[in-house]
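Supplementary Note 3. Input sequence used for the single-chain structure prediction.
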Amino acid sequence: LLLEDLEMVLWASADADASLGRFLTRFRGGLALLGLGIIAIIGLLFGGRRLLTQYEAALLRQAYVDDLTGLPNRAVIVDRVLQLVEVCRRQEWHMAYILMDIDHFKRINDARGHAAGDRVLTRLGRRLRARLPAEVAVARVGGDEFSLFFASGELNELRVRLAEILDVVREPIDTREGPMHVSASMGVAIYPEDGDDPAELHRKADTALHQAKAYGRDRWTIFSSDLDVSVSREIQLIDRLRDALVEDRMNVSYQPIVNARTGAIDAVEVLARWQDEELGTVSPTEFIPVAESAHLIDRLTERVIEHTARDLVDAIGTSGTPLLISINVSAVQLADPDFARWFGQTCSRVGLKLTRITVELTESALIEAADEATLQIRMLRAAGCRVVLDDFGTGYSSIAYLRRMPLDAIKIDRQFVATVDQPGSIDLGLVQGILSMATPMGLAVVAEGIERESQADALRAMGAEWFQGHHFSPPVDAPTLASVIGESAVTAGD
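The predicted structure, written as discrete structure tokens, is reproduced below.
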């Protein structure tokens, strides 16, 4: 039993005896020393040297082996990396230190339960040990994160091995719920280029892992100094954004959506804005992905909804205009099985009727979590919300996709609107095609990015139903919006 446990812990290391000595020396410190002392007394009382050995082995396994997967745990990694670094130093080899996360693992837990997630982790851990060469050490860091490390004489060989690891992960995993297809993202730090300290290698691999996820997942990224600067900025953004959300220092702007026929403002799109005292103005294209990766996106959406409810009462409520309110949601949110319920409760808590809410989502949101997104959209519409596909034509939409998705409207992206008023414009034909496709499918069309009256005239003639753009109004704060609505009402009346 003892030899079997030690083999598990030490990866059948040739220097098992030396490693055992080091482990036991550390193990007999602090509370662990007390535990072994009690065990020793029991062993002496019963005269059981074998009992003592078995208890030591059991405690050793508990300390250094992951209970779920049977892989070495994070307590073993530092010692083993130091050993391998020393070997690489003598042989003038490279060593790859890898952190690997299963992509979208939370979706497995949410959709099929934590027991199913545990089975995926267990089977993947076994597969990695069985399928990868013996020189590749595999450990579980925690959650869905694994650590792998190995030596290589050539950097090209190292890259081949990285691709091999991802191929092993991609193979279907058999579970009682049926085959599951998973992928993984890997961040890689290399000795000696990235240092020889295990903590530093771990930090740099983690930095590279963040970048692999940002690039689209299901890939590996090797650390570089440029990544270090990028991640440092991201960490700073996360800290400042978290504080801004807690202290309610985010701002909200509103851009009117105008009825193409009457000229009245029928709706507004709600836009989050962030002016930080240290960072200055931070673009939504920067802070929204950060909010998603840091699991702050729901809190950001909640703040947007709260601000909107207050502004509608304080600045717009007296006008009596029954505005529709467009709120953007992300792919991360639509992948959450609880999103529709949470969104409805949040709106109800602040007094916003769901029949006044339009949820805007991007094409990528539909594609990244297609099945779950469809379910969440259906639930939102059943609760009274309208659903609009934003930036139509910029991603991967197809007619089949539009037929399958329960949508109410599409927004034609500004890049197609830019030259729609120019004779012979290719965009003119594209927009006509979009409108002729949308009408029989029962989809309303919003044209955004309108800068000139001639664009509005051309789009109106083609049958666009709503307009949005700086020609009518840029995004404005709530008091300004009240004035814009009043002016619009007078103009529409004329």
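The chain has a mean pLDDT of 83. The first helix runs from residue 2 to 10.
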